[in-house]
Amino acid sequence: MGTSELPYRPLTFDTDGRRHLFVRENGMLAFPEGVRPAVFEVWTIEHSSLVKVEPDTGDVQMRSTADLLERLVHRLAREKVGLRLYAAGRPDFLAKVAKVADEAGLCSGEIMLGEPVGPERRVFCVHCDTLHDGVSGDTLMCQGCGTKLSVRNHYSRALGAYMGGGEPAVVIAAMEAVAHG
Amino acid sequence: MAERMGFPTSIERVERLTPTLRRFVLRAQKQALPPVSPGSYATLEFGDGEKVYKNAYSIVMRSEDGLELTVIVRLAPQSRGGSRFLHEKGQPGLPVWIGSVANLFPIVKTARRHLLLSAGIGITPFLSYLKKMRSIGADYTLHHFCRPEERSAFDALLSEQDQTRVFVHTGLPSEVGLADWLRDESIATHVYFCGPEGFMKWVEETTHKLGFAPGKVHSEHFFVPEGGRPFEVILARSGRRVSVKADETLLEALELADVDAPCMCRGGACGACEVTVLGGQPDHRDHVLTEAERASGNIILTCVSRAKTDTLTLDL
């Protein structure tokens, strides 16, 4: 079936890269498989405001997702060719990292997304543009316009979210019946 | 009889740029020529009563009214005669048939920065790139490499360009420090390159070594199909035998024998002319097939590849 999901794959170090940066949503997530390269940095979200960033270390703790993403934007804007970026975490987190990487001009061989942890997705309401984080079901009530949204398999890389549309269940059922015979 | 695909034109103007480079402006005889984009090429057919040549050339420019196309042709010493014919007999008035126009080397619209690397005649696709990139305010740099005696010609060819972004070098890429410049490129840079085989190989290897992802590296091999040992083709469906002479390509021999063989770029770059091989060993010279496909020996691109064996049996 055709979907437009993000390209998730078990993480493995790409030996063609010259420098490697691994960003992960928590410290339990394993490093990419393979021989650890000489130039390798790990950024881990500790979910704690007590964390202080240590400069000049390959093992950096971040306070929050927002903190990590903000630093990633700055880092990628200055980064030279040869970097490989790996990300591990929930679909929400991976979507946000992919969006930052896309905006910085990385292409598919430069950003690797691990298999997502958990089912939670980010959903965009096609009626009022409201973004919903951490949606685990296939339906939700839009927090912006109150429409009952059904989450489609259509992922927008530009928005970093799945599309949520307000078609009544009966219409969706009819459409799917036509699409799948 | 079905109408022949393509566009009739004739040479309108010829300009000698260097002893080996000539600029030809072709003018449509009937309707406007098809639209082109930066990186497009045209397959040109021309000749005299004795021989018809079919070669692909990058389109340098299409006039606003669509009636004129400009190409630059390098005199290729090892060629099968097409470029020599144009250099010697390509005068105003010579009919030239434009068989097809396509683009296998487009500008990547999502790229943040474009680094263009060319050597010799490899500049031709970039002449149309430069015009477009300047007009849209893109971030780009061109490094062009040429022989010292050709420098003034390329300086003249690029004189209208933004001189802060366009550089001509007469030293080798490895000597002038291109590897260091490449290493210093931002992660958002896409590299495009076009030139002779030695130059292509150097850029391919260097960009790979520096960690450029394959999706950021784009090239066009302007490959002139060379001749080689003559061989014979057996067409399995009809049992016919077609001889391929030393100075013609397999595709040309098939066309001469009125065999309906597929083709598009005529330079081993697009893969449209792929044919199944049922017997014999192909001598692959294209830039399309994977290593596994080459090793399997059961497909061939007829526009550039030949045979290692005396006969080759094709599913035609």
From TrEMBL, chain A:
Sequence ranges assigned to domain Dimethylamine monooxygenase subunit DmmA-like N-terminal in this UniProt record: 60-110
Keyword Iron attached: yes
Source taxon at top rank: Bacteria
InterPro entries: DmmA-like_C, DmmA-like_N
Sequence ranges assigned to domain Dimethylamine monooxygenase subunit DmmA-like C-terminal in this UniProt record: 122-164
Swiss-Prot/TrEMBL keywords: 2Fe-2S, Flavoprotein, Iron, Iron-sulfur, Metal-binding, Oxidoreductase
Pfam families (alphabetical): DmmA-like_C (PF22289), DmmA-like_N (PF22290)
Molecular function in Gene Ontology: 2 iron, 2 sulfur cluster binding; metal ion binding; oxidoreductase activity
Name of this protein: Uncharacterized protein
Organism: Acetobacter aceti
Higher taxonomy: Bacteria, Pseudomonadati, Pseudomonadota, Alphaproteobacteria, Acetobacterales
From TrEMBL, chain B:
Superkingdom, natural source: Bacteria
GO molecular function: 2 iron, 2 sulfur cluster binding; metal ion binding; oxidoreductase activity
PROSITE patterns given in the database record: 2FE2S_FER_1, 2FE2S_FER_2, FAD_FR
Keyword Transport attributed: no
CDD domains in UniProt: fer2, PDR_like
Alphabetized UniProt keyword annotations: 2Fe-2S, Flavoprotein, Iron, Iron-sulfur, Metal-binding, Oxidoreductase
Residues covered by the 2Fe-2S ferredoxin-type domain: 231-316
Record InterPro entries: 2Fe-2S_ferredoxin-like_sf, 2Fe-2S_ferredoxin-type, 2Fe2S_fd_BS, Beta-grasp_dom_sf, FAD-bd_FR_type, FNR_nucleotide-bd, MRET, Riboflavin_synthase-like_b-brl
The keyword Flavoprotein is assigned to this record: yes
Ranges of residues in domain FAD-binding FR-type: 4-108
Protein name: Ferredoxin
Species in which this protein is naturally found: Acetobacter aceti
Upper taxonomic lineage: Bacteria, Pseudomonadati, Pseudomonadota, Alphaproteobacteria, Acetobacterales
